[in-house]
Amino acid sequence: MSNARQITLGKLIRDLRKSAKVTVQQAATHLDCSVAKIGHWERGLYKTNRSELADLLVMYGVDEETRDRAENLRREAAKTQKDSEWWDPFDLPKWFSPFIGLEQEAIEVFTFELGIIPGLLQTRDYAREIHKAGRMTFGEGQIEDLVELRARRQERLSGDDPLVVRAVIAEEALHRLWGNAGVMGQQLDALLEHAERDNVVIRVLPFEAGAHLSPQGSFAVLRFPANTADMAFIDTPLSGRIVDNSRDTSELSRMFSELQHSALDVDQSLELVRTLSDEFHRRQ
């Protein structure tokens, strides 16, 4: 099971190998292991043990400070590594499960949504309608599992160390009818309730803002405790993928800042949500 520090360590190992001009095959031969094993380490899919990591770092000719950094990441990754997680029983797509793990470790999430309400802020009824019309055909039992997963994810918004969520939501998502007017009215009411939390900031990108930086889709940038690099998640019509390249995550962070700048301020955003909620309730 991947975690943020394990993915960060994998990226470090990959960068060090490339800097040393060592091929994956050469690294595998040096450790007498498969090429696939090296690839899994570098993608953060499998944990490394101390001796194998040390052997690789000697081969790559890294300095003592870098070796210490890598070993610290390995130890921290091992601490958070578990044989099973609470979301394992859910029937999740393989590409989505790692994101849930990262979300559990993150301290802050910056999320831009183009067509729907962010998953962390969805009601059960709204989430159910999303999955009914989603990218895959689910049975009723699978849909209820996914609805329950959305609800469980929201537990991160409360407690002693709550996740900070900064959301920019395109106005389109507030108008699009999922289910019926009752579902939408309750969903927008829930947004207003979430916005009362100190750790949730909601802003709306209005239609009149015109052209913006992310017309192709939604994304999220996750921030972690010290010594762990930011990561991101990009959603697509077919799947989603984790982004751990520092250049790409920095660009997505910049895009989020620009989208936030183009959005209504918090008070204006919530007033628009409140107005649209009232309209949906009148249509019931």
Query: Which strand-content bin applies to the residues?
Result: 5-15%
Question: Shape, please?
Answer: elongated
Percentage of helical residues?
A: 40-55%
Q: Could you name the CATH topology of the largest domain? A: Endonuclease, Chain A
Q: Spatial order of the strands in the main sheet?
A: 3-2-1-4-5-6
Listing every helix as H and every strand as E from the N terminus to the C terminus, the arrangement reads: HHHHHHEHHEHHEEEEHH
Strands, total number: 6
From the coordinates shown, what is the CATH architecture of the largest domain?
2-Layer Sandwich
The multimeric state of the shown protein is single chain
Arithmetic mean of pLDDT:
89
Q: Tell me the major beta sheet.
A: 6 strands, mixed
Number of domains: 2
**Could you list the spans in which at least 5 consecutive residues all have pLDDT below 50?**
none
List the helices and strands and how they pair.
Elements: H1 4-19, H2 24-31, H3 35-42, H4 50-60, H5 64-80, H6 97-105, E1 108-113, H7 124-132, H8 140-153, E2 164-170, H9 171-175, H10 181-195, E3 200-205, E4 219-223, E5 231-235, E6 240-243, H11 246-262, H12 266-282
Parallel strand pairs: 1-2, 2-3
Antiparallel strand pairs: 1-4, 4-5, 5-6
Describe what you observe in this structure:
The protein has 284 residues and is of the alpha/beta class. The protein folds into two domains: 4-80, lambda repressor-like DNA-binding domains (434 Repressor (Amino-terminal Domain), Orthogonal Bundle), CATH 1.10.260; 96-283, Endonuclease, Chain A, CATH 3.30.870. Helix content is 51%, strand content 12%. The chain is built from twelve helices and six strands. It has helices at residues 4-19, 24-31, 35-42, 50-60, 64-80, 97-105, 124-132, 140-153, 171-175, 181-195, 246-262, 266-282; strands spanning 108-113, 164-170, 200-205, 219-223, 231-235, 240-243. It has a six-stranded mixed beta sheet with strand order 3-2-1-4-5-6, sandwiched between helices. A hairpin with a 7-residue loop joins strand 4 and strand 5 (231-235). Helix 1 packs antiparallel against helix 5 (64-80) and helix 4 runs antiparallel to helix 5 (64-80). The longest helix is centred in the N-terminal third of the chain and has 17 residues, at 64-80. It starts with a helix and ends with a helix. The model has no long low-confidence stretch (mean pLDDT 89).
